[in-house]
Every structure is written in structure tokens, then in C-alpha cells.
């Protein structure tokens, strides 16, 4: 039973020497948190910021770096005399990739908050870590301050999981919350989020769903013990959402959230990111602003929901510090919860297999027969409609009336492929004046 | 860096031999879950149910026990040829205590779901575990299937925590939910819960708050890195709650929940269990039925909320299995997250120091001046009232009117001691016809 001993070896009294590459918000917050609690989880081992690297040496970051050796080159830092390389630079390629590779190859433990890096090179890095025996920890990479990696990897270790889904991008959730509460357009809310620092100047990564997809791929790999494959995720962002959709959703008893959803099917792991209507009153629907929430389901435990800060320097730093504390305590979980040899190969289900209920917003020409034509096309594909709402957009009195109306349909459970065929036929009929907008409805969230 | 290696030693290919004492709902569900997933988290190590013990050997539990050695005596099982002793008998003394002591003394790892045992003898057992180097894991002891022990011990390791609070008893939450939704009395709901198997024949442990107190003391010790002390918890249960309180709460924008609340104060760790008014719309207010929810707060990460099944055989078994998988993986967290030598001594703040807003229900004599007398006593103690509602209980027409009325007060933040003095003076005045009922209001949950 020696491998189960909780006794600590004699080297536990020495410092854990860490090198931090990247001194932005998260880097500075990590150093502050480390300075604030010197005993670090009672490991008896001090965590010492021995070396740092960043783009600019002169910037004042509000933290004391006097004891740390400065490196201009993060790759040089990664292989210097440290125990743990902490990568907080971001980016899937370049310095982040090179320095993490170098650290792992040199047998240094790595702690990173970089989901893009893991999504692009996860299997490569995990294999490197395995070869050198170096731990690779990344609690901060998914859902910021929510310890969801640990929950799935350890808290549900050995327990079958059916699905993992959630709100994994604070920027999108902030924008959707503001659009709904204030009746603003997507563009107005995005500009506001950029002004407040919640969104990047180039928002593609967030609003088009890629950031959510990266996090989902990481979670999915741990939950279903498959290889990490971000290219298997179907991705749709929130640019197409209009205030009318949010209002209609509320009238129907739902709220629109950008969800990442990974489900184990008989056919493989289905990984999707798309706007989803979730029932009002559910934990996900009530998660507003930059907060994240993750729902995990399985036959034994039912549903677990974790919610908390998905971003922010301090919250992300607390996830980094928890990984460092694991290392200081001498704990080193396997990166994906099990050896790569024990992972199942990733398999994506055949496309078009998704079934569910759908919300469809159709801008129709305001002419006799349009409505009947539309209903006929749905019926031909065997799609039953649960609700049909026809709306005329409000226009100020001094403007001429629009020559279009909006029809909102809610389908019963149907095949996505059948719906696509019906919508194509409707477009071909010339009944709609612009492309329809389709949002999936989650009936049991 | 050898202590951080993720490589597994050669003995990881052998089975992890476990002995289970107690084959009730949780025991049987644990065996089923172990049989369902043979690879157990990819540890490469089979978890083998090598031995079992229970009160009756003949009962059919729906699981295959043919490969397991039977022990009549759990203490003999605990020291037999096994790697891990799984204690699922329950009870703070007797067989549970003796067998866990014996296992730890013999250097066997222990996994238990027994919060009463840990609350009564936690420090003693942790010390035994430390002395022999045997792991002692108990994820299942708090909040059933929610991996909250890991979240606090590992996920927030090294990160300062300000408070831990939550709904930790499914029986009480079920009763309160039913009382509110159906307008039933406490006694009616308790009888129903007993019929459905959600409450024991002797419900004291649950409804008087002791079970919540035990779980809170365990969580509190890990969160605040203090010695585990269940006798430091102030406990008040839900027997005094009337349907009128639940209705009044809703009118005021609250819902009544039995919460366990542990807060780090300058003066020590404040541990309290009592009915609490939580704002409608908050995660805790929306946690209904037998579901549990835990909120953890700290300056770095803000608030984390975890919710999920707080009880039930399958959910509790998944927590037991996650502990066993940790052991199969060769991970052995320190029982309280740090060595006992690194724990702070438990210190309870001085009594009477609690400040907050209060809900007070007062049955007053229906006579002129009663109301004025009551308001005067509150004013004398410097207690400001945010709301005052006077209600006459509904009576069928054929019955004579009651000679009493109910006054509901909501105070602004005040000292609990001042409120107690005011209520004593009101009672001495003869203004109230029965004892008042006081419920704390959580203003920022």
C-alpha cells in the first residue's frame, strides 16, 4: 500500500519553484494570491515565484517581482531551474506552444490557463507529458474559477457520464443578458462589452463560439475518456440572434443561451456549440452576465450543476493556484484522468442525426397564401408545430408599413434534416424575404 | 521532481481489494456501479469487492456477492486481507467507529459515507490515519453525489474562502418545498416524507438540524483549515416553521430554507444551522425537493454554487466510487487537506454577536394598543422596522373569530441580542399570546 501513503517525503520542506510566462491580468492576480497565502493549502511547501517572463519588462503590474529572475524568452524560462512552468501567455501557437513543449520535454510540471493551446495541441502535449512523467494541469482553462476539470476528472472518476453542457463563455452570456434585459441589438451590446473590457477588439473567437468549442472539447475528453479533438465540434455563434428572438423566447417560457453540449451517443460523442432555448427557471437560464454554469448528467447521480465566475483575473488565478497547490502537496493527477493508452479514439456521430424541438423565425412576405404555403411545407416533411405566432414588427407612424411579417414556429421533436428540407422548400417557394433563423430548444435542461 | 511523477508503479496492475461493511441502499448501489464500469477511471486497476459484511446474510440485495468473503463482524472485515475498508453502516459509535479505527490502525485505506462518525470522532480518526499513513476519504459524507469535499479541499486549495453555506439535508428541503407548494403543515409533510422513505421513523436527526450540522462541521474544517469540531455549531431545525411563515416569506420576496452557514470571522469560525430567508431567484431559493446546493465564497473567485442530488443510493454510491477510483489511481489526498499539525485550533466566536435582518412572527392579542406597545419595545432597542404586516388568520364562517392576530415584522440589520431583549419585553408586556417565531434573513445569498 505504499503508493497510497499520505506521508510526505523529505523534499516537501523545500520550495516549489515556479516560473510564470505572461504577466497580464491573470499572471499578476496569481502572484498576488500566492503572496497572500504563504502556506498554500498546508502543504508545508512554499510556492516561490522564481522566474517570470512577459513582453514588456518595464510595465508596473502592481506586484513585487524583485525576487524573480527575468527572462525575455519564455522558452528559456520554461527550461530554467524551476519545478513548474506556468503558461499564462495565451495563443494556440508560437511562444505558448514552444515553451510548454520545452517545459514538458524537460520534465517540468506545466500549469496553463490556455484552452486554445489545449484544443489545438492537447493530445500532442499530453503525450509529451506522459513520456517525461511531467504533470500537465489546466483547471483555469475551462470555466475560469469553477473547478469543473477536477469535478469531472476526480469527483466523478469511475462514474458513467451521459452529458456535459453549459455556458462556457462569459462574453456571449453578457451580450445575451444585456440584449434581453435592455432590448439592445447584438452590435450595440458587443460594442458595450468591448468598452467594458469583456470582449476583445476582434470578438470572433468569443461570439462565433470557438472559445466555447475549445472548452467543450477539453471537458468532453475527460468526461467520456476519449481523445481530445476540438475539430469534432459543430459550432454556431450568437451573431444571428435578434432582440425579437429573445422576446419570443421569453413569451414561450425560455431564455436563449450559447451552450456547449457534449453527449455520449451510441454512435460516438456529439459535440455542439449553438444558441439554445433553455426553460426559464432552470439553473442555466438563470445564469446571467459573465457567470458560467456547467451541468453534468449521468444515470447514477442525476444532474450536478456548478456555477461561478467564468473569467476575470482573480477567479482564473484561483484555479491556477489550486493546480499549484496540488503540485505542492505532491499530488499529480494524470492530465486526462487516465493514460492516453486507455483513452477511446474520438468518434463523431454521423451528421444530421440531431433530433429535437426547434424555434424558427421566418420573415415572410406579407401576401395572401404565404402562411398556408409555409404550413404545407412543414406538414409535407412530417413536422408538427407546437406553436405558431405571427408578428408584425413595430414601426413608427410616420414610416410606411413594412412589406413583411415575422412568423415564429415552435416544432415538436423532429429531425434536423427534415426541418432543413422544409426550410429550403419554403425559401424556394419565395415565401420568405430573408433567411430564416433556427434555434434549438432544450426541453429537459 | 520524483514526487510529482504521473508514472504508475508496477503494483498498479493488481486489483484494489475492497471490503464493504453495510449492504443497504448505498452499499448495494456501490457494488452495482463497480460492476458496471470495470476499468474504473482508466487506472488500469480493477476494483474488486473482496469481502462484505452486513447484519443479515440472507437478504437478497439484487447484487452478485458470490466472489466476496462474508464476515459477520465488520471489525474482522476491516483488518482482513483488503486494501480498502468501505464503511457504509452508519452511526457515530459502535461497529462503525470500531471497524474504522481498526482499519486505520492496520494501515488500511478507509472510504466512508458516515458524517455522524466524522462529526463525532473526526479528529481522532484523522490522527489515526496520519499515524499509520492510511488514506481516509469521505466524499459521500457531505451532500451525497455533489463532489463538494474535493471542490473545497482541492479545487480551491490554497485559495482563501470567506464562507461556505448551503442546503445540506434533503429531508428538510423536501418538507419545506412541500409545505410551501401545497400549504401543508410541518407534521403533514413529515408524515408524507416518512411514507415515501425520505425521512426516518425518528426524524430528529434530520428535521432538528443535526445532520446539517455534522456536514457543515466537516466542510467548515476543510474550508477554513481548522480542527473539525461539530460541537461548535449552533443548531435550530425546522419544526417551528408554519405555513404562514412560508407564505409571508414569499410575499416579502424570500423563500425559507434550512441552511448550514460557516463563516470565517475575525473572532473565529461562526457555524450555524437555522431556517433562513433567501431571496427568490437565488440559486439556493430555487433548489427544491431533495436536491442539495452549496455556495462557497471568497475574495478571489466570488461565488461558486454546486447543486445536485444530496442523497439516494446511486448518487451517494457515485461519491464512494470516486474515492475508490482516486485510490485505484494511486492518489491519496490528505484527509483534511493538510496535516493535522498545520490545522488551526477551532475557535468559536463569542455568542450573541450575530448581526443581520430578521423576520419575526408575533401572535398578538387582538386588543387596542397591542400594536403600539410592540412597536415601542422595538424602538427602545434601536431596532428599525423595514416592513410591518398585520394579518388576521382565515377562519371558516361558522367558527367564532380568533382573539388573536398575527403581526409580521421585518427588521433592518440589528443585533440578535437587541432583538431578543425586545421580544422578551414584548412577552412580559402580555402583548403576545404565544412565543414569537424568528427567522434570519440572508440579504446577499
UniProtKB/TrEMBL annotation, chains A, B:
Domain ACT: residue ranges: 359-437
Residues given in the record as NADPH binding sites: 115
One Pfam family from the record: NAD_binding_3
Annotated pathway: Amino-acid biosynthesis; L-methionine biosynthesis via de novo pathway; L-homoserine from L-aspartate: step 3/3; Amino-acid biosynthesis; L-threonine biosynthesis; L-threonine from L-aspartate: step 3/5
Any one GO BP annotation for this protein: threonine biosynthetic process
PROSITE patterns: ACT, HOMOSER_DHGENASE
Record key words, sorted: Amino-acid biosynthesis, Methionine biosynthesis, NADP, Oxidoreductase, Threonine biosynthesis
Residues involved in L-homoserine binding: 200
Active site: 215
Enzyme Commission code: 1.1.1.3
Record InterPro entries: ACT_dom, Asp/hSer_DH_NAD-bd, HDH, HDH_cat, HDH_CS, NAD(P)-bd_dom_sf
Signal peptide bounds: none
Domain of life: Bacteria
One GO MF term: NADP binding
TM ranges: none
Cross-referenced CDD domains: ACT_HSDH-Hom
Annotated NADP(+) binding sites: 21-28
Family membership: Belongs to the homoserine dehydrogenase family.
Protein name: Homoserine dehydrogenase
Species whose genome carries this gene: Acuticoccus mangrovi
